[in-house]
């Protein structure tokens, strides 16, 4: 009798775990996917250690909406058109990892950067100086990366400074961007975004692997629409240390921070 009761309890535990995993999988696939920011390419909009949920309802669903790209969905269904300026999580076209960047170009758009200034279809995205962005020069996040500084060289523990601007896209979206120094990606050829693809850039313009560099050169290139996973709307909470569970490193001013 005791053995039957024990066996029954084990089966019930298995059932509970199964249903819990199934519900979590459905929630993650259809509604919100957790995402942890591992790099500084979107500073100061997103910081290393920000934890957020990706709104997967924003652009509909594709094969890549499911874990391990297992959704039997051809193309994209129930989708709506993303807007220029959205902060988007997408699957890298060749590496298979998830990236987060700002959507700059939609199908048919012409994108160019001249002297660090963005142009979309020949229209300038104006930049207004907004002071500086300062952070401590030290290893950041689980990868232990050091920030780039416009006042380099900076000793460990010193103040790392970047120029900060408010950029206004042609559709009126305003957001912060950072500048470290003049670099090779501050002047580009004209990119014409193919049908069914999108063009992305990081807000930390001199420290971002994005669509300005082709996939053959280890960049992102143009991103097919089926690889869009969802839109980032808010930071849930943020940790400045190597692990989210290190509560003493949590950034109190970033709880439920709205993303612009």
Automatic annotation (TrEMBL):
Q: Which residues form the Peptidase S26 domain?
A: 11-235
What protein name applies here?
Signal peptidase I
Transmembrane domains' residue ranges: 17-37
Does the keyword field hold Iron?
A: no
* InterPro entries attached to this UniProt entry: LexA/Signal_pep-like_sf (IPR036286), Pept_S26A_signal_pept_1 (IPR000223), Pept_S26A_signal_pept_1_CS (IPR019758), Pept_S26A_signal_pept_1_Lys-AS (IPR019757), Peptidase_S26 (IPR019533)
What is an example of a Pfam family matching this protein?
A: Peptidase_S26
The protein's organism comes out as: Maritimibacter harenae
Q: What enzyme category does the UniProt record give?
A: hydrolase
Gene name of the record? lepB
Q: What is the lineage of its organism?
A: Bacteria, Pseudomonadati, Pseudomonadota, Alphaproteobacteria, Rhodobacterales
